[in-house]
C-alpha cells in the first residue's frame, strides 16, 4: 500500500475524515496535524497497528505512548480521572497539555490478555500492548484542532498521539520535516498523510503526571488512640519554632540514650516542618545546614552533645504512597539508641508502620498556620 | 605546549548515570543514561531504585563514552592515531564522591576504584558542585565546532583568558550557591540557600497549583505565557547583611495566596500561567537581590552559571540585566567620585572597571548532572598531581562542601 497525501486545506472535512477512518480501521498509520506538531497516529486498540507505530518510532526505550480522545467522557473509559486530573481537564483541555492518569483496572487486565492472544483487531474496546506504561499509567491528550477532534469523535476509538518525527529528530512542523528525516523503511509504514502545510511553531505539549499521591493538605490530624492529652504552643517566628523544637527534644533526652526518639511531623506544605528540624539540629550542635529531604527521602547528620554522640536522620514521606515503597526505605534500620529520627509528613506512613518502630518513643507534632503565627500541637502522654 | 591529559570521568551522584571522556576543557563525549522513567512513579529519586539502575548502567555507559570519544578524536585533523580509543589510552580516571545520594555515589566510586586497581591508572576524586561551578568552561570538540561552523577565534578567546576573581552561581534542584574564587581549586561560598533549593521551591509551588511533581519544567513552560507582574512575591531576607538565600517563605506565600485567592474554585488557565510567571520571577528576583549584594561586597571580573536551572532562559536574561544595572551604578558612582575630586583639584585617578564577563555552559546537557564537568575539573587536578593516594581509604562524602 503506497503512502497517500491529502491536502486538508482544499479537501472537505467529511471526505478527509471518511478516508482517514478507513485507513485507521484497517490498521493503518496516519500522520496528522495538531495545534502543536504533526502526530503519528494509529488505532490505539489495535495491537498490530500499535506494533507498527512502535516500529516506525524506533528507539523509544520503553517510553509510554499517549492517546488522543475527543472529550473527557471518552477518556474516562480508559483511565481514572482523579480530582487533580479533573481540574486540569477543565483548565487546559482541549489544548497542548498531556494529562497522565492511572489506567482503569479492567483495561489493564484485558491488555495483558491481548498480549498472550495477539489476535489482531478485536471487537472489545481495550488498549493494545505498548500503549500504557509499565506502571499502568497513560497520557491523555485532547488536541485543540477541530479536524482531529471530529475524526476521533466519529471513529469512537482513541488514536495514539505521539509526535511524528523519528526519535531524536527535528520537531515536525511540516510534512517535509518528517519525510526528510525518515528511512525508506519508515516511510513505507505510513499509509496516509493529512497535510495542513507548515504549522505554527508551538512547543510540544506539556506533560503533567497526576498519578502521584503527593498531598498539598493533610488528611488527618493529631487524634491517635494513644494521645491522651494534647498540648499546643503558639510560635510567632522561625526562631521561636526552633526553640520549641529544642525544648521538646530536651524533654525527651532520657529516651535518646535508651531507644532513640522519633519526631513525627505533620503540617501542610510551607508550614515550617523543616524549620522545626533545624531547631532539633541546632540543639544537637549540628553546624551543617539542614535542607529539605524531599528529593532524597533521607538525609543523615552526625551529632555530639555533651557525652552523647549519635545520628540525626531527617526523612520526608511526602511522596511515599504505598507499603512497598515504605518497606524499601528500611526506616526501622535507622531507629535505635542515640539516634533521633525526624519524619516529615508522618501521616503518609502511619497506616504502614504497625509494630516496626518497637519501643522507641514517638513524639507527634502537628504544625498549623493561622495568619502569621504557627500553632504547634504535640502529644503529651508521659 | 604541554599535552592535555585524557580523562575518563564518571558521575553517579543522583539519578543519572553519566560517563565522559574529556581532554582539558574539551568534551570528547558526554553520555547520560537517564533514570527519569524509572523514578517517575516516585516523583523524585528513590534511593534503592537509583542504586540498582546505576549498577546496571555504569559499564555500558562507560563503554559508549569511550566509543563516542574515539569518533570525536578520529575527526580531529592532527590526530594521527587511527585506532580505537580504549581504557589503555586514558591518562587518568575521575569520579564524583560527593555531594549526592549516598547509595548512588557508592556505585560510581566502587566501580572506578576497581577500574583503577585493574588498570593501574590514577584516580581523581571530584566534588560534584565544583563540576557545576566550572561547567561554563567546557569546549566543544573540534568535530562539533566544525559541524556548527563556530569561528575558531571564539573558541580560543574562551579558552585561556579567565579573569579572576570569578563568581560561580550554581542553581539546581538540590543547590543554590554563590561560589567566589581567585583560582580554580580554592573556593569560598559567599552565599547559599539555608532551606529549600531554588529548583525545589518551584517544584513545590507547581505542586500547589496541581501541576504534578516535580513541576519545575512545567512551571517554566507555563511561565512563558504568563505575566510575571500579576502576583508580587515577597523579597525574603532583606534585613540581613548576609548573602544567603531562603526559599521556604516564598513557598508559604504561594500556598497562602492560592488558598486565599482561589479558595474552593480552581484558577483558570491564564491565572495559572500568570502565577507560574510570577513565582518564577519571585524566586529569580530573590537570587538577583542577593547577587547584587555579592557584587557590591566583592570585586568580581567574571560570572559563571551552572546547574539544572542554568538552562532556564529567563534566569540567564535576568542575570545579564542585573550585571548591566550593577555596571551602570558603578559607573555613576565613579563619575560622582571624579567630579567631587576635580572640585578639590585632586589629580587622583579613578581605576577603570572592566565589564563583567558572563559565561554559561554551551549546551543544556552540561547543566544537567553529567560526567563531562567532572572530567573537566579532574583535568585541573591532574595538573597539580591531586590523585587519590590510598584507594582503600577513599569514601563517599554525601554532603561534601566545595569550600572544605
Fold blueprint:
The complex is a heterodimer of chains A (382) and B (404).
Chain A lengths: L3 E4 L5 H13 L4 E3 L6 E3 L5 H11 L8 E3 L3 H4 L3 E2 L2 H10 L4 E7 L1 H13 L19 E5 L4 H10 L3 E2 L1 E2 L11 H6 L3 H4 L4 E4 L10 E4 L20 E6 L2 H14 L1 H6 L2 E6 L6 H11 L14 E8 L2 E9 L6 H6 L10 E6 L5 H4 L7 E10 L2 E7 L3
Parallel strand pairs in A: 1-10, 2-10, 4-7, 6-11, 13-16, 13-17, 15-16
Antiparallel strand pairs in A: 2-3, 3-9, 4-8, 5-6, 6-7, 12-18, 14-15, 17-18
Helix pairs in contact in A: 1-6, 9-11
Chain B lengths: L5 E6 L5 E7 L2 E8 L2 H4 L7 H28 L17 E7 L3 H18 L3 E5 H7 L7 H7 L3 H9 L5 E6 L4 E8 L2 E7 L5 H11 L7 H8 L24 H15 L6 H29 L4 E5 L6 H31 L13 E3 L12 H12 L21
Parallel strand pairs in B: 1-4, 4-5, 6-9, 9-10
Antiparallel strand pairs in B: 1-2, 2-3, 6-7, 7-8
Helix pairs in contact in B: 2-3, 4-12, 7-8, 7-9, 7-10, 8-10, 10-11
| Shape estimate of chain A | elongated
| Percentage of β-strand residues of chain A | 15-25%
User: What CATH first level of the largest domain in chain B would be assigned?
Assistant: Alpha Beta
Number of strands of chain A: 18
What is the CATH architecture term of the largest domain in chain B?
Answer: 2-Layer Sandwich
Count, helices of chain A:
13
- The coarse silhouette of chain B is globular
Largest inter-chain contact set:
A-B, 49 and 45 residues
- Range of helix content of chain B: 40-55%
Structure write-up:
The complex is a heterodimer of chains A (382) and B (404). Chain A is an alpha/beta fold and 382 residues long. Chain A has two domains: 206 residues, DHBP synthase; 150 residues, P-loop containing nucleotide triphosphate hydrolases (Rossmann fold, 3-Layer(aba) Sandwich). In chain A, 29% of the residues lie in helices and 24% in strands. In chain A, the strands form three sheets. Chain A has a seven-stranded mixed sheet. In chain A, strands 4, 5, 6, 7, 8 and 11 form a six-stranded mixed sheet that branches. Chain A has a five-stranded mixed sheet with strand order 1-10-2-3-9, with helices on one face. Chain B folds into two domains: 187 residues, Nucleotidyltransferase, domain 5 (2-Layer Sandwich), CATH 3.30.420.40; 190 residues, ATPase, nucleotide binding domain (Nucleotidyltransferase, domain 5, 2-Layer Sandwich). Helices cover 44% and strands 15% of the residues of chain B. Chain B has twelve helices and ten strands. At the A-B interface, helix 4, strand 11, helix 11 and strand 14 of A face helix 7, helix 8 and helix 9 of B.
